[in-house]
Amino acid sequence: MKKSHIILAIESSCDETSASVIHDNQVLSNIISSQTFHSTYGGVIPELASRAHLSSISSIVQQALHTSGIGINDVGAIAVTHQPGLAGALLVGVSFAKGMALRLGIPIIPINHIEGHLYSGCIEYPDIQFPCISLVVSGGHTSIFLVHSYISYELLGSTKDDAAGEAFDKIGKMLHLDYPAGQKIDSLAQLGNPKAYDFPRSMLHDGSYNFSFSGLKTSVKNFLQKQFNNQKPNQSELQDICASVQMKQSYSITGPQSYLSSHV
C-alpha cells in the first residue's frame, strides 16, 4: 500500500465520535461511539457532547487503526469534519486531527460533512453518473442538491425552519417516545393508517424546492393537546398518528428531476 493512498478520517460534529481508515476508496475500518446518554434529555446537550468526544476520541482512533491493520506511521493524510456542527464538538475533532498531523508531518484535509453526505454513496456505488440529484436528510439538515461532479454542486432547496430529523425527534417527544424518535415513529407508522389524521405539509406547491416542517410539528402539538390533553395515546392511536405524520413527510421530487432533465 502506498502511504499517500491511506487516509485516517475523523468525525465529531454532533453526538457520535467516529474514526475510519480508507485505502483507495476501500473502507478498512469504521469505529463509532454513540452518545446514547442524550436520550435522558430528549436531545443533544452541546457541552456534554463535547466532553464525551474529548474522553473517547483517542481510543476510537486507536481502534480504527487496529481494526484496519494500518500502523499510524503508514497514514498519508488525516481528514476531519470542520463544519457544520456543534462548535465545541467540532473543536475536539479538529484539534485532535491537527495534533496528529503535526506530529506525523502529514497533511490535514478539512471536510464539510454535508459534502461527505453528498458523495458518500459513491463509495458503495462508484459507477454513479453525474449529474445527479442528492437529498441530504438528517437531524440538523434537509437539503436537495444538483451534483455536477466531485467538485461541483449547487443547492436547489433546503428547509426554511426545522430539519426533518429534528421534527421527527420533537414529535416523538410529544408522543412520549424515547430519543432519537425517528426509527420508532417509522416502526409504528408501518402498523398504522396514514389517512387517520390530517396533518398539514407545507411548500409542496410553492414553485421552489424548499421544505418546511415546523407547521407539521405545531399541528401535531395542537392535536395532542386537544384530543389527548398531552397524555400518551394508546398503541393503536399511536400507530395511526405516526403513520399520518410520516405520510405527510413525503415530498415529490418531480420538480428537481425535471430541472435535471432540462439542464443537462
List the helices and strands and how they pair.
Elements: E1 6-11, E2 16-23, E3 26-34, H1 46-68, E4 77-83, H2 87-104, E5 108-112, H3 113-124, E6 132-137, E7 142-147, E8 153-158, H4 164-174, H5 182-189, H6 214-228, H7 235-247, H8 254-262
Parallel strand pairs: 1-4, 4-5
Antiparallel strand pairs: 1-2, 2-3, 6-7, 7-8
Compact summary:
By secondary structure, the chain is α/β, with parallel strands linked by helices. The protein contains eight helices and eight strands; from the N terminus they run E-E-E-H-E-H-E-H-E-E-E-H-H-H-H-H.
Describe the structure.
With 264 residues, this protein is α/β, with parallel strands linked by helices. It has two domains: 3-124, Nucleotidyltransferase, domain 5 (2-Layer Sandwich), CATH 3.30.420; 132-247, ATPase, nucleotide binding domain (Nucleotidyltransferase, domain 5, 2-Layer Sandwich). The protein has helices at residues 46-68, 87-104, 113-124, 164-174, 182-189, 214-228, 235-247, 254-262; strands spanning 6-11, 16-23, 26-34, 77-83, 108-112, 132-137, 142-147, 153-158. The chain has a five-stranded mixed sheet with strand order 3-2-1-4-5, with helices on both faces. A hairpin with a 4-residue loop joins strand 6 (132-137) and strand 7. The longest helix is centred in the first third of the chain and has 23 residues, at 46-68. The protein is globular.
